[in-house]
């Protein structure tokens, strides 16, 4: 359903990602590991279609359609959503109004209030988006907005960063709801790609495949828990060896 083929991405003319291949099937959740600066956020921004992230080679297909050149709003309409690592504050727009806009015909006051309750955001609904929110509140707000939008493919950029241990279980719940994890695996439609730095989110959300990104390249596809254990025990250096073996030279 999401097919990324030989994707290279540049920012301001500087190549950041090289030859990325990644497929996510219907109903699947995949996880992306990698040290700071390896290009994880760049990959998500390129999939979402932010113009600063220029695709210099390769293509992105979603539901069989080539979306490589589509603007971000059209990708959102096709069913792609993203929770940002550091989302901006939006002065003058109430969180409630954003939910209302995301839900379109599906939204009414009762539904929105219920959703806010579910995300423990009731007190924050009438505040401006992310204005003065704590780290955990920002992440819960992001996930609540996504639950209003209901994308088929959700990209999560470090959903657990800045979240305390009490809130991480709730974050996990909201992600599971977004990814249809409560449905039987065969009837699951929604897909996810989760960037995690610490791997903590894997205690709450099941994922099928993990990848390690290093210096703008991807490799070491495998069981996410095994990859995480290797990183914890041996560091990313061990993954460099893995990369050397698994990625064909350009
Ligand atoms: P990660 O999310 O894995 O920490 P990023 O995708 O944010 O990595 O960054 C990858 C590389 O791209 C880094 O070297 C970073 O400095 C560079 N980079 C990211 N955003 C920009 C930008 N807006 N302008 C220039 N370089 C950038
Ligand atoms: Mg990042």
Describe the overall structure.
The structure is a single chain. This protein is α/β, with parallel strands linked by helices and about 250 residues long. It has a single domain, classed as Rossmann fold. It is about 35% helix and about 30% strand. It is built from eight helices and twelve strands. The strands form three sheets. Strands 6-9-10-3-11-12 form a six-stranded mixed β-sheet, with helices on both faces. Strands 2-1-4-5 form a four-stranded antiparallel β-sheet. The protein has a two-stranded antiparallel ribbon with strand order 7-8. A hairpin with a 2-residue loop joins strand 1 and strand 2. Helix 7 packs across helix 8. The model has no long low-confidence stretch (mean pLDDT about 90).
Q: Provide the CATH top-level class.
A: Alpha Beta
What binds here, in terms of ligands, is: adenosine-5'-diphosphate, magnesium ion
Overall 3D form: globular
Are there runs of 5+ residues with pLDDT below 50, and where? none
Count every helix, treating DSSP H or I runs of 4 or more residues as helices. Answer: 8
| Average pLDDT number | 91
CATH topology: the name is Rossmann fold
In which range does the helix fraction lie? Answer: 25-40%
The first-to-last residue Cα distance is 26 Å
Q: Give the topology string: H per helix, E per strand.
A: EEEHEEHEEHHEHEHEEEHH
Which structural class is indicated by helix and strand composition?
A: alpha/beta
Oligomer: single chain
Q: What is the total number of structural domains? A: 1
CATH homologous superfamily, by name?
P-loop containing nucleotide triphosphate hydrolases
Strand neighbour order, sheet with most strands: 6-9-10-3-11-12
Q: How is the main sheet built?
A: 6 strands, mixed
